[in-house]
Amino acid sequence: MESFYKNRNVLITGGLGFLGSNLALRLAALGAEITLVDTFLPGHGANWRNIQEVRDRVSVNICDIRDEHAMARMVAGKQTIFHIAGQTSHTDSMVDPFLDIDINCRGNMVFLEAVRKHNPAARIVYASTRAIYGAPVSVPVTESVRPNATDIYGVNKYAGEAYHMIYHRAHGIPVTVLRCSNGYGPRAQIEHPKFGILNWFVGLVLSAQKIRIFGDGAQLRDYTYADDFINAFLMAGIKDSAIGQIYNIGATSQIKFVDMVKKLIEIAGQGEYELVPWPPEYKKIEVGDFAYDITKAQTELGWSPSTDFETGLSKTFDYYRENLQHYLPADIA
Amino acid sequence: MESFYKNRNVLITGGLGFLGSNLALRLAALGAEITLVDTFLPGHGANWRNIQEVRDRVSVNICDIRDEHAMARMVAGKQTIFHIAGQTSHTDSMVDPFLDIDINCRGNMVFLEAVRKHNPAARIVYASTRAIYGAPVSVPVTESVRPNATDIYGVNKYAGEAYHMIYHRAHGIPVTVLRCSNGYGPRAQIEHPKFGILNWFVGLVLSAQKIRIFGDGAQLRDYTYADDFINAFLMAGIKDSAIGQIYNIGATSQIKFVDMVKKLIEIAGQGEYELVPWPPEYKKIEVGDFAYDITKAQTELGWSPSTDFETGLSKTFDYYRENLQHYLPADIA
Fold this sequence. Notes:
Number of helices of chain A: 12
Distance between the termini of chain A: 39 Å
Strand content of chain A: 15-25%
Oligomer: homodimer
Largest interface: A-B, 29 and 29 residues
Structural class of chain A: alpha/beta
CATH architecture of the largest domain in chain A: 3-Layer(aba) Sandwich
């Protein structure tokens, strides 16, 4: 991995967010030349603290993926592009579907057109999401299960990955799509629950606020630690056999939502929770049980998650205990 | 059917195009109150000749489905809305993906938001397309086969129907989605081959131009006559059991592309064809064989196509022989 990424010219869109910044840190350790693009979309994960340790090692360019002319400059000359930027809130996509369409449909197309025109040989790894499966029509969910998104975000992220696959087939652009499951770990936003609910709970526990669980918390979920996602992105960017492929990236084991909360409180050594009724706006887009089949990623990409839940949670609490004031607004922290 | 639609307040978007105008004629015969919306998108099917026979029976409003304020007025007070307007060219969607996104993603959302805000009880029938299956991952193609669009149009039409289904589940809007296969018949545009290839061939034959078939013409296709589609729209709009459902609407029998052309020349009693190599821009988005499974529409909606190919072609030639000058530019006709 080091021999591949050393001195490699890499672009990360959404580079100051959760996945982007963790990826930047790893790529810096591997010796890559790194450019981060981020537009600091309000309510999203961009945070200067995320890249503090590599601030002098990376180039940061603040711009939107919807900015055609800026993106032309950003993609030119890059060897590998990790395309992670997007609108990421399920609930926001239902409140303002037009913003989601503008970013996750039109913005992805601005990005792809920039690549097609200015750097069609660039190796692209696109961060998609398990949200495209929505309430899955069958479980466990392999890559062949048809999309059934329950919110506009899930539809548009599917459109985004389909655009990538079409640009691969029609224009020869070497893309890989990773359908990422729920993630947690250092450098996620913890200010609100619109995405990354586990991270938000970490913030609640550390700021001595009670966790509220909607319903009985019996729905099964899987949680993947940041480092494991980063491994998947790096491996996808290396393997030629991953070109034109889609992979489910997530955990192999499921845990009940309520048990996740109990484990979190146990690891933290603090915190409490309560059960409350489902708010209607969440209930409408709730997807029920979810069990991910990651066999394809394991057998073809050689990737598996390797961080157990306790270890991941411990590292996450360690990070936020040290950096809490940079992730919570002053009036909460 | 007459008792249901008589005096019913109906809106048709794309009302001056192929499907919209044929639907308007039938609804006029059934005694409905009809408003047609069309923006006369260049290169698309809107044509005043299409509605000549019912011009004094229908209200026509020229506006774009992307026009938020106009759409608010258009949907208000309607009982049934047949939502057919869209960008419909596969090849154009690859040349100008942004226009396709703007109409088929954002425009559909403008329409749905107008319905949600101003008339959420309106019964919606949305014209989707078999293009969402693209190069189908399995045949025959049931509604459960996962989408695999080969062009941006196919992706965005899928997004459009997924928006409709989400607005049904989350906001209770009573929608039905019809995935329409290849259509032919009177009132289609015949000026260019960007959509409705069979109709274009009819125009070529009548204007004494040779038909060119790409490749060997061995790919299987199905063709559905306009009247059969109109039956499907009308039945979908009546049945409560169709709410929240998606139906494949197409022919039960397949025909080789080259045999379709031979049949067309036979019925017309004139015309000739030649085989030519695939142009690369078409080859890239060609979907191969396609066989539609319409069992769901047959058993649940009670719909089947009833016009045989010879009869449909005869009626089509009859129409265009009488009206050719209204469908071909002067320099071709």
